[in-house]
Structure formats: C-alpha cells, structure tokens
Amino acid sequence: MLTDILYQEIKELSKEELLLTIEIPKNSDMGDFAFPCFKLSKVYRKSPNIIAQELAGRIKLTEAFEKIEVAGGYLNFFVNQAYFVGSVIREVIEKKNDYGRSKIGEGKNVIVEFSSPNIAKPFHIGHIRTTVIGNSLYKIYDFLGYNTITINHLGDYGTQFGKLIVAFKKWGKEEEVKSNPIPALLKLYVKFHEEAEKNPQLEDEARMWFKKLEDGDEEAQVLWQWFRDVSLEEFNRTYNMLDISFDSLAGESFYSDKMPKAVKMMEELNILQKSKGADIVDLEEYGMPPALIRKSDGSTLYITRDIAAAIYRKETYDFYKNIYVVGSQQNLHFQQWKKIIELMGMDWAEDCIHVSFGLVGLEEGTIATRKGRVVFLEDVLKRAVDKTKEIINDKNPNIDNLEEIAAQVGIGAIVFQELSNNRIKDYTFSWDKALNFEGETGPYVQYTHARASSVLRKSDIEVTADIDEGVLTDGVTLALIKLIQQLPEVILDAQRKNEPSIITRHIIDIAQAFNRFYHDHPILVEDEEVKRARLAVVFAVKQVLYTGLYLLGIKAPEKM
Ligand code: ARG
C-alpha cells in the first residue's frame, strides 16, 4: 500500500527495498508509518531533510492516509484508520494462505543445504539447529516464489569409513548393528581409536580400506552401503517426526567421481602446491591456513568434496543462491572453500552463502540418554511429546486425537525454541528450557491459534470481507492490525537475512496483541455489525499465525 505510493516518486529503490525501509514509529505521534530518507541522501546528493520535504510535496496520498508530516529526515505517514483497518482485513480474508506470499523469487533456483548428519554417528542435539533453521529457510524461500532444492549433504565418505570397515571386520557383530545401528557403529568407531592408540598400524589399515572404497572394491562398497542404509533408517525416524524431507540426498560420497575433474582444474590453474607429497592450496595471502586438497596417498578430503559439490550444483541447478546451513565451527572451512572457488575463477562464488549458527552446548550435569554424553535428537522430541501428553491430559482429557496433537505441540515447542534466538548466538541446551511451555513459546502461539479457531467455530455467521471497519479503530485493535499488515515485510526481511527468528518474534507479538484484543473485546456480541467486524479480525489473526508457524515448520492444531 505505502510501498506503491512511495514507488511512484522514488524509482531509485526497488519496491522490496522500499518495503524494508518503512518503519513503525514507537510513538504514534510520529505517525503510523515512517520513511527515513537517509538512504536516498547518497542517491540524490541532498540532505535527508530536504529530500523529505520535497517528497512530501510530491507524494500523492490515497484514501488510506490522512496526512504526511516531515520530521528531521523522516516522512511520517498518518493512516486513515478505518480505511487502513478495512483494507488489511479484507486482503487477508481474500488471500488466505496466500497472504504474504510473493513472486519475487520467480525463475530463480535456490539450493538450501541443511541437516547433513554423518553416517554411523549420532543424529544429536547439535544437528537440530541446522535441521530446523534449514527447513524454515526452505519454506520461506518457497513462499516467496523461489524454486527451491533441498539437499541433505550426508557425511557418508572419508577416512572414518576406512576405520569403520576395519573395526567391523575385526570386532563387529552383524546382529548388533542390525538391532541398534548407530550406537553399535559408534561403539566400533570408539573401539578403533582405543586400539589404534596401542597399535598404530591400524591407522594404515584404515587408510588402505578407505582407498579400496574409493577405488570401488566390492567388499568395501557393500559394507559402506550397509552402514549408510541402516543409518539413514534411523535418521528418517527423526525426519518423519519433524515432517522434513529432502529433494536430494547427494552426500559427500556422491562427489567421489566428480573430484578428479575439480582437482585437475586446480592443477591447470596452478593453484595447487606440493607439500610433503600432498597437494595444498596456500591461502597465507588471505590470512588463512593452507587447505589440504589431496593427501600423499591420493585420497581426498572434506573440502575437496565441497569444491566438487559446488561446481556440480552450479552445473546442475544453475543456482541463484546456494545456501549452506552449517554451524560456526566450520566458519574457517567455508572461508577457505569459498576463496578457492574464487581463485578457480568461478564468478558465482559470491552466490554461495554459508548461513552460520552458534554452538549448542550441553548444560553442566545434563543427563544424556543411553550411553555417553550425547543427547539424541529423537529422544528430545519424544520427551517433549510425552510431556505434552501429560499436560493435555490434565487440562483437556476428552480431546480427540491426543497423540497427533501432542506430537504437533511437543515437537513444535522444540522447533520454536530453536528458532527464537538469533541464529548466530551460541546457546546451551537444557531439558528444563526445552520442556518449558510457559511464556513466549511455541505452545503459546499454537494455543492462541487454537483459541481463535475455537471462536470461529462457535460463531453462527460466516466471516466475509464485508465489514464495517469503523468499529475497529480503537488503539488495541489498531495495534494488532498493524502487526498483521507487517507480516509480508517481516517474511521478506527474514529471507534477506536468512533469519527465521524474525518471524518467530513477530508471531509472538501478534499472539500477545491478539490476547489483549480478546481480553478487551468480547467477540460474539449481540450487535451484528460489531460481531462481524471482530470475527473478521479473529479470522485474520488465525490466518497469520498459521502462516507464521507454517514458515517455521510448525503445525497449527485447531484444538488443544
Ligand atoms: N556432515 C557435516 C557435520 O555433521 C556437515 C556438512 C556440512 N555441509 C557441507 N557442505 N560441508 O559436521
């Protein structure tokens, strides 16, 4: 609305940029919306204040606005409240699930790589962040019209598989691996390291077996395939709980036959240097340690596979953006990798984006399940579901489909918590926090959605866009509607910054504003006009909460 008005006079900024520049002043004396002119100052080479004054003279306001005022480089817009409220509510009612959706991504391919656990290793609490941040980013990009491709870059290759093969051949039991794959494989891996301390020759054996695997040896291949299959079965249980699937499971192994080409390219470009028989890229000039590309026995490394993967992805998907959702421990890896791709002359290197996130620490004394200090993601989700079941049983024992709702709420709680903080912040996992459903949590937002659903169920009239907006102009209602109006912009902002927590915080604000509205305004009142108008607000709130939760990868039950 305001964007279109501004765009008529300001062609130098895109509509998207204009939208993201608009602010909501804290104090409504300063208007309902404000447009700062500081960015334009560089473009027009004039002071923001003068630009604001000139624009104020030229801008043609629509009915939606009452007036514009200029204040120190800002244009302050005062809305015609009834008109504003009416048009927002009508737009939501008409567009429903499409409210906030856009086409800005049309024709652009975006890869979102996320989760990427390692075969034969636990899918643990540290993976939860990449998994839920990545899934949410995928939904956000998809909602904005991008063609998305989701990739799970499984850690299914590397020298550790040589170790695993050796360990299994020496000490492994097929039955154990079959009945409880990951713990059994993990045990073998640990045993290998213990034994290798005493007998370093085992390391050579492991290297040899990995080499065999790379060379296509049948025995090595069969074992590797089996480790991969049983691991994936376990991972899939967790993905099913989270309702996550991938377009591609091309993990590290997928690039085994694509690396020679990449390495050859580096050779031809003279980027590789010999160092003690190995091939490295010297990155000293860029303030980074050298990157090892090929060991002296010819075997390749994690970074080699990432280089081959990027080239393959460009060739296969011609991506607009290639996003990697991976923790901050790998910042250096991704910096080195990107520099190497740049040195290889790939002008699309800048379209490869490492979306980093903070570490997950375990709180002192955290009781991990099963053996060892590993908290399995699956156990966290299960415990959250169990606790939710108890709570619902206390409050609402007669509810239908308890299992389904408990799963939606319990898992939603975990996911929401993960997406509440800025992704870059480190945080400490604690069972208490994860299972606390009070305050600004997922269950609170879901509960607000269910409350809105319940009001709509109880009403005897159908919600339509035909309302008398004049009854919706009190401060509490207006504040709520402004937040609803902002959702499309919030989604764009979340995409720009690859930051789902922007949506998380916004839907908490909406839920709180709605609960204030609900507290102050009875909905199902005698007066038909008032009832119709308030029901329309309830409908709009239910819709935006649904959409917000959906974009975070969280279900919105109708009852709970
Ligand atoms: N498998 C790795 C891990 O669990 C993450 C892979 C990240 N993706 C990549 N393209 N390097 O630490």
UniProtKB/TrEMBL annotation:
Motif 'HIGH' region: chain residues: 117-127
Molecular function terms from GO: arginine-tRNA ligase activity; ATP binding
EC number: 6.1.1.19
Keyword annotations from UniProtKB, A to Z: Aminoacyl-tRNA synthetase, ATP-binding, Cytoplasm, Ligase, Nucleotide-binding, Protein biosynthesis
Gene3D superfamilies: Arginyl tRNA synthetase N-terminal domain (3.30.1360.70), HUPs (3.40.50.620), Isoleucyl-tRNA Synthetase, Domain 1 (1.10.730.10)
The family this protein is said to belong to: Belongs to the class-I aminoacyl-tRNA synthetase family.
Listed name of the protein: Arginine--tRNA ligase
Organism listed in the record: Alkaliphilus pronyensis
Gene that produces this protein: argS
